[in-house]
Amino acid sequence: MKMTDTNKNHQKNMDSKESKPNESSSVNIQGHIKIFDPNSKEVFIDKRNAIHYENMSEALAQSLANKNLGYIYQMSFGNGGSSVDPTGVITYLPANSTGQNANLYNETFSKVVDDNSSSNTDTSRNNLTVLHTSGRVYTDILVSCLLDYGEPAGQQAFDNSTTLDGDFVFDELGLKSWNGSAENLKLITHVVFHPVQKSLNRQIQIDYTIRIQTLTNLSTT
Predict the structure, then answer these.
(1) Alpha-carbon distances of 154 from 115, 166, 220, 221, rounded to whole Å
(2) Do residues 197 and 162 touch, judged by C-beta distance below 8 A?
(3) Among 46, 41, 37, 115, which residue's Cα sits nearest to residue 75?
(4) Among 44, 53, 142, 191, which residue's beta carbon has the most beta carbons within 10 A?
(5) What is the pLDDT of residues 61-86, one digit of tens each?
(6) Strands of the sheet with 204-215, listed across from one edge
(7) Helices (runs of H) and strands (runs of E) counted in the chain
(8) Omega within 30 of 0 (cis) for the link into 195
(9) Which residues, 6+ apart, have CB-to-CB distance to 147 below 8 Å?
(10) Domain residue ranges in the chain
């Protein structure tokens, strides 16, 4: 059967569509934080966090390009994410997720969680674990950090503070990526939460999960 001009054009369009690569994929990044007492198993915080997408995109690109930059290096803690009025009502500030120089509102403590760094003094309890299941289109980075009994230095003996403005009554937390030196880090996640006091009488464990998921077959219309 002789192919008409209409059929030829249709076939040409079909061939063009079949040969065109799939460029409609995307990447979704989510974060979740769990703060708890590893001994009593009491959970203090269990919530999602904000992603700093500009800094995260740069970190991913630097890591993929093997520039020895962009990898998660530090977990930072602060006490500037909330305020309490005279009646006891707590007001929470929004997470800082824009601007390359974004930071915690008031950072008061930090720990190196990069287990390849010589600055990490306890890699068995402060480390990064990559979790992936074959066939899944997402991969998790589990950032584990333990605040031991004796840290931070200068903390109160018991978790019975009557105020929420102490240096180690934490209400914000963020992950920072390596940008060339320990003094030059970039905030890639930030979360503000109900104040949690770190004191000598207890340990506090932080499990921070970053999920990187590829999204495919998205509509281009």
Answers:
(1) 26, 11, 56, 58
(2) no
(3) 115
(4) 191
(5) 999 999 999 999 999 999 999 998 88
(6) 43-48, 26-36, 204-215, 138-147, 127-131
(7) 2, 12
(8) no
(9) 111, 198, 203, 204, 205, 206
(10) 25-215
